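Incident review: delayed structure delivery

Summary: a single-chain prediction request sat in the queue longer than the usual turnaround. Root cause was a stuck worker, restarted by the on-call engineer. No data loss occurred. The affected request and its eventual output are reproduced below so the record is complete for anyone auditing the incident later.

Affected input:
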Amino acid sequence: MSKVYTIVSIHSCPGQKIGLGNSGGLNIYVKNLIFYLIQKKQKVIFLSKKHENCDFKIHNKNFNLLHIDPTKKNCVPEKIIKDTNVLISNYYTSGVFSKKFFSKKKLLKINISHTLEYLKKEHFSDYKVNINRINKEKSIFEFFDYTLSFSKLENDTLRDKYGVPIKKIINSTPGFERKYFYNQKKDYARKNINVKNEDKLLLFVGRNDLLKGLDIAISGFKILEKQIKSIKLGIVGGDLGSSEQKKIENDLINSDYKDKIYWFGSVSQDNLKNYYNASDLVVIPSRSETFGIVCLEALASETHVVATNTGRMKDFIDDGRTGILLDELSPNYLSKKIVNFFENKTNFIFDDNYYKKIQKFEWQNVLDDLFQKINI
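Output delivered after worker restart:
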């Protein structure tokens, strides 16, 4: 039976370029959720804040996209509020918005936090939590019928720090799209992104955010550059063009590293496999991750990773074979582990059964499992 699903993402829209500003894994999740529901012949209304140059277009009679000004009193048409059967909110800003506009309507309400304020502190002890945001998150969890949890630590944090009853928590995950992420020949991929075959390429994928650890990747690379011949660092996303990114780039201009760090900018999901497959190693020095979607995409492309033990990454990585889990996080330790990788590269392999470990994280499987648990 067809229902009307209203998906709210005030934080960002899938029509914004990935890896720039607020745009990241949340947008990938929302986009795949929308496609999944349309495939299931459900009606989908998507609400997001207005922004420039939106390229998110789906030509389907069951899909309606509204870019709104969330500060305006009547920004959500009354008919949408009336028709909605299932409300799915993404990130705490959307939760605050949803509570304001959908509080009078009896419907099934699902919250996806994507990241919790307390969880950042659990991963990164120096992080200063925002008490105002925590109070908003607590209010949201009371309002929604269910909140998704992407890891055991997130589940524990929801219960212990926020007081969310276990019956209101649904264990789920993000995922990856197999048609986009698979292995292809390295020389072919390098030709597509204009990287020399003799280079040893490290790849960072993500926003220029303290918790993502781009600063650690660059600092670690500066150490490695003195030890490994022809090593290069590629950066996908990195908030290319922002004032912070320009500052980093300017600091490197008069250094020995300016021609050894490639800023690739935002890359679409269907083209990202070229960058994973062109790389020798994907570097994920995150101070905090709720899940670790970059790790999953890289491994699906059969590219080795070096990553912090945060989020769900230990569930994907076969330490010492498909990648390296970091016991500590510092530029020196990261560079040491990368040197170890290149010295023992023949030990790192993807065997015939590796894909079984991550197959359950394909989007179709993830979302089938979620909606079976919700029993809609």
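Verification: The longest helix spans residues 25-39.
Action items: add queue-age alerting; document worker restart procedure.
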